[in-house]
Amino acid sequence: MLIQTSIYLKVIFTPSKIQSKLMLLKQSIPEYLTTSKNTIIQIAFTTIFAYVFINIYRPFGYDNWYEAKSWELLIASAIIVLTGMIVIIVSRVLMLRLKKSHEITFAVYIWFIVAEIIFMGVFYTSFEILILNDTRTPLSLLFNAVQNTSLILLIPYALTILFFAWKDIKKKFDSVAQQFKAPTEIFIPFKDEKGTLKVTIKCIDLLYLESNDNYVNIHYIDKQKERKIIIRNTLKKYEKQLQDYPIYRVHRKFSVNIKNVKLLQKGKKGYELVMNTDSGQVIPVSISYQKSIMDLMKIK
Predict the structure, then answer these.
(1) What does the pLDDT read at residue 282?
(2) Distance between CA atoms of residues 24 and 16, nearest Å
(3) E-strand spans in the chain?
(4) Listed residue (200, 257, 234, 299) closest to 283, CA to CA
(5) Which is it for the CA torsion 288, 100, 39, 24, positive or negative?
(6) How far apart are the first and last CA of the chain?
(7) Is pLDDT at 58 greater than 80 in this prediction?
(8) Beta-bridge mates of residue 231
(9) Burial 77-86 (b: 16+ CB within 10 A, else e)
(10) Could you read off the pLDDT of 167-189 as tens digits, one per residue?
(11) Are strands 187-191 and 197-202 parallel, antiparallel or unpaired?
(12) Taking a C-beta distance cutoff of 8 angstroms, is the pair 242, 188 a contact?
């Protein structure tokens, strides 16, 4: 038994295993863990979970508080939870601000969670000493509070992270599936700068997008004629909004529907894309986008 345990520990703690774990801690966390929307969802779910948990489990013994009635306990527990959640809100605001200037690694993310547990543990310990007049030693109360806080936070955190990961995998799967759809089956939505849907165009009919100051000219085919619609927005925003569609940026002023590109050719000023239209519209390719377009078209 001792030999088996020794072998197991050697496998777990070999330099290569330790190094791989350290490398993981240095990696950036997935984007979905630090988006504003998911952060709000996680805080809201954690608040609800904490409120239900405290009222069922009553870990801090507050049900003995002045022999309060049931409805008074519900109100008191709501105040306790909401006050404690201030720690989480401050922590996540700091994380989102840090994200703007620094990379959020797994190590940083874990430290934020550990700090939240400790600070909330200190808060609940102070509550038990100052409000509930608990006679146990502060160290004992803090240890107990940290244990309970770990349950209150880690369970909803684990559930929300699994949910966000599932949504991200589903989105990527749908994106891949979208690529295998025939262009005639795909409708591409175009919204203005306020997020209002203005038009949807079949992928097979869309040609290219052209920047026009604060507007975008959307060129497409309608009844075998080339037409355009003008929408107030920017190519940069469309680049993010349409990343699940075969629309690719090729120039400061142009994004093209790769499904309607006839050929890539060398022009006088660099490479050009010739669109699959009667007019044979030529779209220039900037040097900064040449490699990505050639990779996309599998040109070496």
Answers:
(1) 92
(2) 12
(3) 187-191, 197-202, 206-212, 215-222, 225-232, 247-249, 254-257, 261-267, 270-275, 282-284
(4) 257
(5) positive
(6) 57
(7) no
(8) 216
(9) beebbeebbe
(10) 989 887 876 666 665 555 688 99
(11) antiparallel
(12) yes
